[in-house]
Structures are given as structure tokens and as C-alpha cells.
Amino acid sequence: MSTAVSDNDVLPFGEFLSGEHHDIREAIRDFATREIAPKAHAVDQEARFPIETFKELGKLGYLGLPIGAEYGGAGADYRSYVIAVEEIGRACGSTGLSYAAHVSLGTNPIYKFGTEEQKKKYVPKLCSGEYIGCWALTEPGTGSDASSQKTTAKLVGDHYVLNGTKQFITNATDADTAVIMAMTDISLGRKGISSFIVEKGTPGYYVSKVEKKLGMRGSPTASITFEDCKIPAENIIGQEGEGYKQALMTLEGGRLSIGALALGIAQAALDAALTYAKQREAFGQPIGKFQMIQSYLADMATYVSAARLMLYHAAWMKDHGKRVTLEGSQAKLYASEIASKVCNLCVQIHGGYGYIIDFPAERFLRDAKLCEIGEGTSEIQRLLIARQLGL
Length: 391
Description:
CATH class of the largest domain: Mainly Alpha
CATH topology of the largest domain: Butyryl-CoA Dehydrogenase, subunit A, domain 3
CATH architecture of the largest domain: Up-down Bundle
Largest sheet: 4 strands, mixed
Strand content: 15-25%
Number of strands: 10
Distance between the termini: 44 Å
CATH superfamily of the largest domain: Butyryl-CoA Dehydrogenase, subunit A, domain 3
Helix content: 40-55%
């Protein structure tokens, strides 16, 4: 990694980042470089969820980075969390994705919307790594249409009975707790959606199909099926009918984490391409001396810097209590799409070596694509942005 890239990705953001943020980046980068990056290739090739890494992240306080100290978290701000996702994703896209899903989706809804009893029961275990969390919104046939839930939750006495199937759920295979969206009143449409906490081992709760994926292979993705699954009535998060509103607020913050993940993968691809361009020789000189390669690298560095500014600005706004519907969607859209561009150029710079598994370039490209799809596709982001423009 060149000094220029290493310095430029942490220094030029003025009031967006403080000295404390830089210290957090340095600490997480050190851990990610030592413990996560060396396993990234094997995690991908073996499609193995690195549970041992999550246990260490919990011990170090990173699983509870944006969670209040009273519930076992570190009490850090959202910028710190974005930095953590970026650095972990830079070391390993799979680990970064599962980390973001655990914190933004598996933990944050309970922390933000749960009762005091729910917070005390679940959040400290999620922060410590004793529990792994997941969040289940997507269903077969719904995709981006999150309001069209088919999973139902019927109140029977002091229990809710859940029936239905969730699809493409990150961390589902290893999750100890799942936050589930389900219809408590179908006649109300999206206003009839509620959210629930379901624990692993609950009768009628099954992890079904485990997906084989193009990229992010070490981040498990599976379906969850409910067959007359009885959960205590007190496991509802908030009130009946509040689930869709909670989901939108969860996704608003989650988009920043996926943007940060995309940014981390793009930075890794830029680092790898720059190193290769300095070392690989052709026609008697390093290929980095050729103007075409310099042009590619200049574009890559510019894309990454622009995405980082957009992302940190949105995180700064969130830390200052501002809505980031527009800025979050813009940052997620841009970061995810430039990640694919940067990773594609990384492969091109590597030539034939970029197409084989001996080099990480092909993994970067495979991993980056998911960021254009997960937590709201690029098409959905454009619709959200257009709405914020008054269209």
C-alpha cells in the first residue's frame, strides 16, 4: 500500500472526523490487517462464516460500537461505525457484510425500538458476541416491495403464531436471534406489519435453503421458515403496525453501512491495483509508468475519494440528528456503483492474473456486486432520491 493512499483516506475530512475517529480507524485497521485479511481467501473459497472473528470483534467492543454503554456497547457515534465497516470490508468483504448485518440489522432495531426488558435481555449478548443477530424482511416474490409481506403473526392468547418464509437473510445460519417482519393485520397493508424477536431453537423456526453465491461467500445467506412458530407476546418490538416504519428507519442507517462496505472493497481494489502496477513490468518498465494504467488508477482514486466524502458527510449528518434519507441513498448508490467500477478496473490492470484466484482482484469484483443489490437496489435508491427531489 502506498503512503499516498494510506494517508489520503484518513486525513482530508476536516470537521467530519476527529482525532478519536482516526484512532478508531487505526485500531480497527490493525486488527483487520492481522486477523481478518489473512483469512479472507480461505473464508471465500470455503464459504465459511468466520465465527471466531466475530467473537474477537465482540471482545474488543466493535460489535457494539454504536450501542449505548448501558447495554454493553461502546457508545461511539455513527461515523465510528462507518469507519469500522469500511476497514473490515477492506480486509474481507464477507466479514464486513456479516458485521454490518449483525450491527445495523440484527442489533440496532432492538436497541432503537425495543422495550427496556428486550434491550437488557438481548442487546448486551449481541454486543459481546455471545449472540449473533439477523434481520428478516425479504420474502420470495417480494424483493424490493417490502410492504408486500406474506409472513403472518396471529395473536393467540399470550403468544403470537408465525407462519411464512423469509429469503436471502444474512447470518441466518448462525443467528441466535432474528428480528422478523410479519403481518399482524393483512387488511391494513404496510400499516399492518409488525416486528418480532425470535430466538434460535424456538419450535417451528427453521433455517432452510442455504444459498450458494457469486461473492460474499463467507457471509451466510439462507431462508428462514416459520411453521406455527409460537413466540411470547412480549417479543413484539413496539406496537402492532409499527414494523414497516421501523424497517424504513433501520434501512436508512443500514444503507450507510453497505455504502461503507462498498467503499472498503473499492479501497482494497485500489490498493491492490496500485501495488501491482508498481511491481509488474512490461516492455522494460513497471506498467504503472504507462499513461493508460495511470488513467485507470487516477479514476479509481477519484471515485473512492468522492464516495468517502459522500459517506462521511451522511454519517456526520446522522450523528447530528438529521434525517439522511437523501444523503444516505446517494452515498449508498454512488459507493456501491463505483465499487464495481473500481474492482473491474483492478481486474483489468492485473490482466490475466486478475481472472484467477491466486490474486484477490477477482474476489473484490464478485464481492462488490452485492452492494448494488443488498439493502435496497440501485434502482430503489434512485427512486428514493427522486422522491426527495419532490418528483
